[in-house]
Amino acid sequence: MEKVDKRRRREGKTDYSRRIKLLKSESSRIVFRKTNRYLIAQYVKSKEAKDNIEFGFDSKTLLNYGWPEKAAGSLKSVPAAYLLGMLIGKKITDKKNIPIIDVGMLKTVHKSRIYAFIKGLIDSGIKIKSKDGIFPDEKRIRGEHLKTKIPFEEIKSKVTK
Asked: Origin, by domain of life (predicted)?
């Protein structure tokens, strides 16, 4: 009789071997997820295989910081990922304890939203080891490639307060 994988593994939602390693490390982690319309970031602490979400933000929160309503369709863009990283990085009080970045089953492509999010975390003061050349260009982070221009510097100044 052939063994059948667990349902969440078959659906491509959970990598159980990676999750066990994360839980055994007992480190806090920052979870980054992408939906069809938004980006989600959460600060999670695990104890005895139980996840406790300390706080979290989604990119919809950027509308409160001055993101233009007419550009709401671009809330999962590279600038939104960077600003979301800055936002969650400013909220983390324990800057000495290096969290693990948990991207789940997302593919990690250099210069993508995931790395823009990590750059936002680094720029907010969290010490994360990284290589050179994996982050998006400054023009992409500022949103110069978008059709609808966003007031990036204005939003960034509000997020960093």
From this structure: Archaea
According to DSSP, the β-strands at 100-102 and 29-34 are parallel
Amino acid at 111: K
Summarize pLDDT for 23-57 with one digit per residue, the tens. Answer: 788 788 999 999 999 999 999 998 887 888 999 99
DSSP string, 99-145: PEEE-TT----TTSHHHHHHHHHHHTT------TT-SPPHHHHHTTT
The CATH code of domain 13-160 reads 3.30.420.100
Cα 46 to Cα 55: distance, rounded to the nearest angstrom: 13
Structure tokens that stand for 9 in this block: 């593994």
Answer yes or no: is pLDDT of 4 > 80: no
On whether the CB atoms of residues 58 and 67 are closer than 8 A, the answer is no
Rounded to whole angstroms, the Cα distance separating 70 from 151 reads 12
